[in-house]
Amino acid sequence: MQDLSGGYPGGHPRSPGTVGELGEFGLIRELTSRLTTTPAVRIGPGDDAAVIAAPDRRIVASTDILLEGRHFRRDWSTAYDVGRKAAAQNCADIAAMGAVPTALLLGLVVPAELPANWPTELMDGIRDEAQVASAAVVGGDVARGDTITVSITALGDMRNQDPVTRAGARPGDTVAVTGWLGWSAAGHAVLSRGFRSPRAFVEAHRRPEPPYHAGPAAAALGATAMTDVSDGLIADLGHIAESSKVRIDVRSGALDVPAQMSDIGQAVGVDPLHWVLTGGEDHAIVATFPPQQKLPARWRKIGEVLAPSALPQVTVDGAPWDKAGGWDHFGDQDED
Amino acid sequence: MQDLSGGYPGGHPRSPGTVGELGEFGLIRELTSRLTTTPAVRIGPGDDAAVIAAPDRRIVASTDILLEGRHFRRDWSTAYDVGRKAAAQNCADIAAMGAVPTALLLGLVVPAELPANWPTELMDGIRDEAQVASAAVVGGDVARGDTITVSITALGDMRNQDPVTRAGARPGDTVAVTGWLGWSAAGHAVLSRGFRSPRAFVEAHRRPEPPYHAGPAAAALGATAMTDVSDGLIADLGHIAESSKVRIDVRSGALDVPAQMSDIGQAVGVDPLHWVLTGGEDHAIVATFPPQQKLPARWRKIGEVLAPSALPQVTVDGAPWDKAGGWDHFGDQDED
C-alpha cells in the first residue's frame, strides 16, 4: 500500500470501496465533484465537450501519457503526487511555448479492483497543480483496464504573444535556465536505493515545481527558442539545437550543483553533474536570448549558441558529453 | 493476425519490424511523417505544444479513451478502422456541441512487440477521419505498455454560434435524430457470433460515419439541446432529460428499422428495435428543436419533450423501456 501521508493535504472524505464498486458513472461523479473552475471555463465537465475561453484566438495544446510502473510507482508516490506531477509536466509544455495554461482534460484508465480513493486523490492532485498553473480541469474520460494510465491534455492561451518554438536560436544567443535541474534524478537515485531522504530531493522527484510564469515572461523578453527540460538538459537542448540548426555549448561551471546533491552523488557513486545534465522531470525551462538581453531574475546563463560544426549539437565545456543523455521511453530499462 | 484487407486504402509503405525496434523517437517520426495539415494549424507536431487557430475566441474540447479488448478487438477491426473510429467518436462530441472540429491530439500506449505497421495504420485512420471532419492531428505522446490504449483529445471552433448543451430542452420541443442508429450494435451481434456479413452492418461497427456537419447546422437552426448517440439512444436522451429536467418520449414507429436489420434480429433472436434504442457507437446526433422549427433535410422526428412526471425520464410510446439501456464501461461484461 502506498504511503498516503507524504503529500496529501487531507480534508476530503475518502471514497469507500473499489473503482469497480463505484462504477463508471459513480467514479465520474466522484471525480468531477472535486473540481474547481476559473472564469475561462464556459462549460465544464458533464456535456459532450467543454468550452473554454481562447481570448488570443490561438490555442496551445499538448498531450502527455503516464503509466504505472513506467512513469510512476504507487509505492514511491501517492496518488495525489502522481496527479500533481502529471498536471505539472503538461502545464510546463504550455508554459515552454510562452503561453498561460487554461484547461486540462484527463483520460484515465484504472483497474476495477483499485481502491476508489486512488483516482479521487489523483484528481485532487491534478486540480491543485492546475490551479498553481492558473488552469482548471474541464473534462475527460475513464475506462477500466489493467494498468493505471493517466493521459492529460493541457490547453493554454498565448495572451497576444508569439509562441516561442525550439527553432529560433541563433549563433551568439545566450542559453539560460530557470527552475530546478537534476533534483528529480537525484531523488530517483535515493528512492531506487531504498532510502526516503534527503527529503528535498525525494519530494522533487515526487512533485516537480515548474516555473510556469517564467515561460510567458521569457517570451515577453524576446526569447528566441524555449523548451522545458523533461528528457534532460542535454537532450532537450539537443532538440533546440536540431530545430534551430545550431550547436549549443554548456558551461558546466555555470550549473548549480548543490552541496547536498554532491553528498548524495558521493554516497551512491554518481557524478552529480550527470543528474544536472541528463536528469529529466524537473521541468525547468531553458531558453535562448539575444546576446544583449538582460536576463530576468532567477534565470542563470549556462551557455552559448554557436554555429553548427563537426562536433555534436550539444557540447559541455566545448567537448562531447560522454555519457548517455536523456531517456528513450521504449528502451529496455524502466525509468522509474 | 488481423485482417488488413478490410478497409485500409494502402499506398503507404509498411514500417518494418516492431514498435520496440523503432524506438520512441523512431515511432514518433513514423507517425508524424504521415500527417497532413490545415490552415488552422499554426504549429504542428514536434515542439513542446501545438498552436491552433481559435477564431471564435472559445475552444471546444473533449477526450475519449479506447482500450484493446474493451473498446476494440484486433481480430475484428484493422488498425486503420480503429483509428477512424477513435477519431470519429471524438469529432462527434465536438459536432454535438454545434462546433466544427479543428485539431486532434493522440496519447498512444503500445506494447514493444507490436508490429510497427499497427500504430502507423492507426494514425492513417485517425488522420483520414480527422480530414472528413475538417480537422488535423497536431500532436501527442507515445509510451510503451501492455495494452494498446488510444486516448484522443479533439478541439473545435464554435464559429460564432452558441454551444448547444444537453440542458436546454423544453416541454413541447421536437426530438429529432440524424445519422445511423443500431447499425454498429447489429454489426457487433454479427461479429460476436463469428460471422463477417451482412457487410454493411459489420462495416458500420468497424467504422462509424457520424454526421459531423449536422451539429453546427442544428445549432444554427436553434436546437435547444443536442448530444451524440454514443451510449445508446435511450441512455443519451436520458442525459438530455436529466440535464434539462424534462421527460422525453420516443415513438418507436418513427424509428428506422431497415429490413436487413430485422433479418439479422430474427437470425440471432434479438428484437432489432433493441439495437436501435440501446446500441451505441454509431454516433448519430440527436437534438431537440422548438416545436415550430422545420427540421433540416435528413433529420427525422422521433419523439417529443414532455414535462417531468413519475415515469422514467425517457419512455418509449409512453411506457418505460423494459430492457437495460446503454453501457456501463465498468460493468463485468466486456462490450466488444
State Rg of chain A: 20 Å
Uncertain regions spanning at least 5 consecutive residues of chain A: 1-13, 325-329, 331-336
CATH topology of the largest domain in chain A: Phosphoribosyl-aminoimidazole Synthetase, Chain A, domain 2
Query: Which two chains form the greatest contact, residue counts included?
Result: A-B, 74 and 74 residues
Largest sheet of chain A: 6 strands, mixed
Distance between the termini of chain A: 17 Å
Principal-axis shape of chain A equals: globular
- Which percent band covers the strand fraction of chain A? 15-25%
Provide the CATH architecture of the largest domain in chain A: Alpha-Beta Complex
Q: State the CATH superfamily name of the largest domain in chain A.
A: PurM-like C-terminal domain
**Topology as H/E string of chain A?**
HEEEHEHEEEHHHEHEHHEEE
How many helices of chain A? 9
- Placed side by side, the strands forming the largest sheet of chain A appear as 8-10-7-11-9-12
Mean pLDDT of chain A: 91
Number of strands of chain A: 12
Which assembly state applies to the chains in this document? homodimer
- Give the % helix of chain A: 25-40%
CATH class designation of the largest domain in chain A: Alpha Beta
